[in-house]
Amino acid sequence: MKNTPAPTPKRAAVVYNPIKVDIEKLRASVEAAEAAHGWATTAWFETSLEDAGQGVTASAIRRGATVVLAAGGDGTVRAVAEGLRGSGVALALIPSGTGNLLARNLELPLSDLGGGVEIAFGGVDRVIDLGMVEIVRDDGASEEHGFLVMAGLGLDAKMIKNTNSTLKKAVGWLAYVDGIARSLPELKPVRLSYRLDNGPTKSIKAHTILVGNCGLLPGGLLLMPDARPDDGLLDIAALRPQGPLGWAKIWRKVAWENGVLRKSALGRKIIDLSADVKDVTYVTGASLRMTVEHPQEFQLDGDEFGEAKSVHAWVDPGALTVRVPAAA
Predict the structure, then answer these.
(1) What is the Cα–Cα distance from 173 to 170, expressed in whole angstroms?
(2) Is 317 helix (H, G, I), strand (E, B) or coil?
(3) CA 93 to CA 109: how far, in whole Å?
(4) φ and ψ at 286, to 5 degrees?
(5) Which parts of 20-84 are beta strand (E)?
(6) Taking a C-beta distance cutoff of 8 angstroms, is the pair 80, 57 a contact?
(7) Alpha-carbon distances of 134 from 77, 149, 158, rounded to whole Å
(8) Which residues of 40-74 are buried (b: 16+ CB within 10 A; e: fewer)?
(9) C-alpha to C-alpha distance for 261 and 253, rounded to whole angstroms
(10) Distance (Å, rounded) from C-alpha 172 to C-alpha 97?
(11) Is residue 97 a contact partner of residue 110, using CB atoms and an 8 Å limit?
């Protein structure tokens, strides 16, 4: 009688940002989990200025990783997701940054190291979309990147650029309030032309254009209430404050209607009976092309990406597999 060979143990890989991570605690937690679940020895990869995570993630895939734990801020998670795009290898989140945007939107642990590691080894896979952008600079140079939660052109990108990094380390996402204050002197609408999917080219003036794969921001701000990470669509919001009360109306829409009223049946009825806030315009689509008159600041998942003359954003449906709790 033939002996059936034992199955090859699964293997994890960790891609970590050494500036953001307590490596000793992370190693201890990962080693305990791999032993408990009978996995092979985990491979470890450190990010660097030259490689934010894409290159080492490719190395992890070549070494047979079943799941890649991204330990760092949103930039590390975004870079690892780029490296995993279309591979079928799962991404596990070990949040270690300020925003932790994808973890918030997927309702994953934000400050429980052991819980995050356990999900990596004992969780289940969920397939979600990945947002993609091609950024064209003023000199014609272009580059392609992925994003998990939100891309933005205009004021929100200026805010991120102007946020004090020291303050951000001290008080977390609240530092963006300081960034908003620093951006107010530059508060001017942007004129741009855009094309949604295969529709006609149109023009618009807005302070900010946001393209979302998910809709929740730090502080519980539900900017895009209908955004779903696995619906094969991008949700797009144009912030266009009209008159002296425009920004107050936008804040009411985002913080009160989206964040409070939508949580109850009565609240949703109140929204249906209320007049639309024209200062915020929502549309959905699989692709958005936009070109500005003058180069504007651009951001991806809360990280500044310099100035863009034009941007093509599109959704790559089901391109990413993410580990979530088994009971989810």
Answers:
(1) 9
(2) strand
(3) 9
(4) -90, -15
(5) 43-46, 67-72
(6) yes
(7) 19, 16, 19
(8) eebbbbebeeebbbbbbbbebbeeebbbbbbbbbb
(9) 10
(10) 8
(11) no
CA 101 to chain centre: 5
The rounded distance, in Å, linking the Cα atoms of 11 and 64 is 7
For the chain, the farthest-separated pair of C-alpha atoms sits apart, in whole angstroms, at 84
* Secondary structure letter of residue 41 according to DSSP: P
Q: Residue 297: beta bridge partners?
A: 307
> Which pair of tokens denotes residue 266?
């009565």
Angle, CA 99 vertex, CA 58 and CA 297 arms, to 5°: 80
Which pLDDT tens digit goes with each residue over 244-300?
566 666 666 666 455 543 554 544 443 344 445 567 788 999 999 999 988 999 999
Are 73 and 19 spatial neighbours (Cβ–Cβ below 8 Å)?
no
Q: What is the pLDDT of residues 195-254, one digit of tens each?
A: 999 999 999 888 888 999 998 877 777 888 889 999 999 999 888 766 656 666 666 666
Q: Are strands 12-16 and 43-46 parallel, antiparallel or unpaired?
A: parallel
Helix axes 23-37, 113-122, angle to 10 degrees: 30
